[in-house]
Amino acid sequence: MFTRRRVYSFVLAVALVALAEGWIFSNVRGEFRSIMSASRMRSVAVTMGAFPRRAEVAEIFAWLERVNRQDAQYRIAWIDGIPAAGEALPAAGDADLVRLYRDNASDPEFVKGFDNVAYEETYRGAEDRDVGGALRALIFAPAVDSPKGEGVLLFAFDLAEQRSFERLLVVLLGVVFCVAVLVLWQIQFSRDPIVGFAITGLFLMSLIFVAYPLFESVRLSFVQDGKLTLQIWRSILTSRGYQAALKGSIRLGFWTATFSTLTGFLFAFVCSRTSVRFRPFIAAMGTLPVISPPFSLTLSVILLLGNNGLLTRLLGITRFSIYGLHGLVLVQTMGMFPIAFLTLSGVLDGIDSTFEDAALNLSAGRWKTFTSITLPLVFPGLLSAWLLVFTNSLADFANPLILSGNFRVLSLESYLEVTGMNRLGHGAALSLLLLMPTLSAFLAQRFWVGRRSYVTVTGKPTGRITELTTPAVRFALLSLICLVVVFLLSLYGTIVAGCFVKNWGIDYSFSLANIGEALTRGRDALFDTVTLAAVATPLAGVVAMIAAMVIVRRTFHGKRLLEMLIMTPFALPGTLVGISYILAFNKPPLILVGTAAIIVINYAIRELPVGVEGGVASLRQIDPAIEEAATDLGADSATVFRTIVLPLVRPAFLSSLSYTFVRSMTAVSAVIFLISARWYHLTVLIYNFSENLRFGLASVLSTVLIVIVFGVFGLMRLLIRKNENLVRSIGA
Amino acid sequence: MHSKSVRLENITKVFRDPQSGQRVTAVDDVSFEIAPGELVTLLGPSGCGKTTVLRMLSGFEAPTSGRILIGELDVTDVPPNKRDTAMVFQSYGLFPHMNVFDNVAYGLKLRRVPRPALEEKVTRFLEMVGLSTLAKRPPSRLSGGQQQRVALVRSLIVEPAVLLLDEPLSNLDALLREQMRVEIRRLQRSLSTTAMYVTHDRVEAMSLSDRIIVMKAGKIVQIGTPGEIYRDPVDTFVAGFVGKVAFFPCTTRSIASGLCRVEVRGRNFDVPRWSEDLKDGDEAVVMCRPESLSLGAPGEGIEDGVVTTNVYLGNSVESWVKSDQGDVLVQIDNPDMKKIRKEGESVSLTFQPELAKVLVGFERLPKN
């Protein structure tokens, strides 16, 4: 690989790039300087024209002061007469400039300037001088018709703008140079440049959009007024309010996780251990809320149980407020028990029911069997489900935003710090604080509970299920499920009903006015939301599959690091991601805040882990010889990816696409920090409407969102079903 | 057809164990040449580095040092997709989302062959292996032998300079294996493609190859025609690996004029082949193939023993004799015309010196 010829041509190519960049740099800088200089000369000419002619000294003083007070790009001083070398004539104007003149009266540069002025010519100083603590460009101009007939106007121009432009240019060219060197390196020394580019690209992507923002938020939580300090952390850790928020988050997480796990277990148990007839329907109801947009459940809970809610009024409840912990636990449980249900039904299906048969056979009672066999086997699953819900509840932002009332939680607190008080450092620190319980729960789930699973893959079909419940118990369980399902359906029904009611809580007469108004006012946001999601979706999907291919099929240095970086956003609360992004990307070298790009990138980066996991799982089942055969027949890596890998992982690819699309459509927590007047998000609009008590409008938009989300999921299910033949044949 | 020669010069491949970081030399200074149109087999026990050699030849692994030439072209740094090689994989690597026709046509499509020519050629090649009626089937609905044929044709259709086969028959049952062996040989001959075949099955190697390269622990032990390797192995390892064999300890007496006189159990024999490392008076072994051994009355031969098992095969009988040298196999051809010793009978072993070889040293052999 490293033959002398290749090394030479690499060095030569790098040198050429460096030369070209040097040339571009000097040209662009020269051009910019001459433009700046010309514009300075123009301001000098304008100022010269405004110089009070044949005026009293006092009038000139007043004029000088006015000009200097304008806070323009330059300072000005006036010298009464044209000084000879070393001569200190009276001067006025900017004090720093006057001092500079006094100190440098015999400086050759100044002498030259005064000589030029004597011929009534404007002289551009050849070197920049320190005026008032910063380097400035000097210009000597004749002050025509001064009291003595002639005089000098000394200008000192601010160079900050020019400096920052040049710094930007250097950064830009530096980045281009680094990329060029990497590209040339791959071309010369890599057997497979395309994969080399892919790996380099993935590394750059995850460093810039995962590691850098996180680093910035950690760094800025230690910086206040430009100084390194522990002040922010001290104030956060000692403040009663923040402690209350931390406690609130954990209390909320605890109750939500507990109720969700119980509900999820109820559903899962009935679905996989009893012979109840409507099991498919129960399973569908158990998964339904997982794809329901944010705010939709909160909204309907408010419509039903809020201060002016339907039920509140009907039942005449007065001393009850849905806002606060109870309401949040209720809404989060409704929204998050599917996580527990999906986890637990996976676990229950995976545990061979012959264990239970054996226990029953040994004449253990049904209850005894349940407590001594089923429960211990499911226990790791229960713990895992509890931790998953706990993590989700802590990171949840949309529900507390509307429903928290006086109850404080961390995710909301960090949002208020940023948007309400503009204290980015505090916001970052708070969401980092939120990361601690989230991350530890996540890691505990992954590495501790995940390994103690009793799920067995026997490969034996377990068609028959032993009835573990008596009819009475079954009836009780079903009633409980019915209760949940009816409540869930009434929540969805309420949102739809909300669209057609004139003014919920006050006037329940039928009206279509809300629909018209909501669609008019929400049109732009809807368009933006769909556009951004549609851009992010293929991007995230393709990048996820490329990353999966690289992770599964290639060995390279830093693979573990890359994997970790890509997977990290999965464990991060959305508020932390949002705050990190505004911290990192509202300043050079990458100013992205306010653009569509930052929203798209945020979607792609946050949904990437799920896509990558799916891709990795399905690639692991595909014989590498298939790809090698294609390569061997002459296909380069890109062609192999396009014609072999992508078709083979199509189910994973499609579900990654639809997942990204739906999650992007329903995003709140991170995107609420990143939206701008130009790029708005539907969910934020729903929030705004709810805040202003325009529940009708919010209902309409929520319904639209629900329809879109369900439509996309339905479409994906249809597409994947067509593919099942293929999936089976890969395994063979 | 353009078949080309292949040359490997001092190829070494060192792997780094990703867990321990230890360096493992998989292939150690291997050099050989394959003539155009020749079929050469790499034979060796698993883990001897033969597949690594093949993967370096196809470009999937880069050698740590050394050069690979196809024809006159140095391809050491050429990636697999730009090499004029085609590989048949052990697991076939058929594209599950394409039918037989598209699988075979894949390489041609990449070479931008126009549609009519492509269809004609694919059909012709499918006919060659009798699969033209199955063109529209997905690979999952083919039998193992059919899948194997598709894989073979898919590689051959791009007319590679070198065809590489990585244990292509190991997933087939015995009968099918025999058929496919003939088929591969026929196709390779008729297209006169240069081919490199990797296997650990000595019967496959013997029956297919123009020449065999025997590898052991990353090194080449011997290169030769199947006959040479069988008759004239360089050491006890090769002798044992390419066929059943018995060794009898001996002492060399004199080596001269094309014969090596050895003493076995006090009796002298003149053996026409011997290891070049041997000097007069060395302790050595005589290598005997089963067909060069015969049984006599106890005390007559070079070694006494007891017949433990007789296996009747029709054209021969295999008698296993338990002796101090272990279990020795004696093959008796045309058994119906000869006296067969009964199981449990005491016998002695004699050998035909003109079919034997004197080899250095002795090492524990794999049981076969």
What's the structural domain tally of chain A?
3
- How many structurally independent domains of chain B? 2
CATH architecture of the largest domain in chain A: Orthogonal Bundle
- The CATH topology of the largest domain in chain B is given as Rossmann fold
Anisotropy-based shape of chain B: globular
What Rg of chain B is obtained from the alpha carbons, in whole angstroms? Answer: 24 Å
Number of helices of chain B: 8
H/E topology pattern of chain B: EEEHEEEHHHEHEHEEHHEEEEEEEEEEE
Task: Kindly name the structural category of chain B.
Answer: alpha+beta
* Average pLDDT metric of chain B: 88
Q: What CATH first level of the largest domain in chain B would be assigned?
A: Alpha Beta
Average pLDDT over all residues of chain A: 84
Which two chains have the most extensive interface, and how many residues on each?
A-B, 28 and 33 residues
Residue windows where pLDDT falls under 50 for at least 5 positions of chain B: 364-368
Strand order of the largest sheet of chain B: 6-7-8-3-9-10
In short:
Chain A is 70% helix and 6% strand. Chain A is an alpha+beta fold.
Description:
Chain A is of the alpha+beta class. Chain A folds into 3 domains: 51-158, Beta-Lactamase, CATH 3.30.450; 250-506, Orthogonal Bundle (MetI-like fold), CATH 1.10.3720; 517-731, Orthogonal Bundle (MetI-like fold), CATH 1.10.3720. Chain A contains 29 helices and 12 strands. In chain A, helix 8 packs parallel to helix 17 (424-449), helix 16 packs antiparallel against helix 17 and helix 19 (513-553) packs parallel to helix 28. The longest helix of chain A has 47 residues, at 4-50. The two termini of chain A are 38 Å apart. Residues 457-462 and 724-732 of chain A have low confidence and may be disordered. With 368 residues, chain B is an alpha+beta fold. Chain B has 2 domains: 6-231, Rossmann fold; 244-360, OB fold (Dihydrolipoamide Acetyltransferase, E2P). Helices cover 23% and strands 36% of the residues of chain B. At the A-B interface, helix 23, helix 24 and helix 29 of A face strand 6, helix 2 and helix 4 of B.
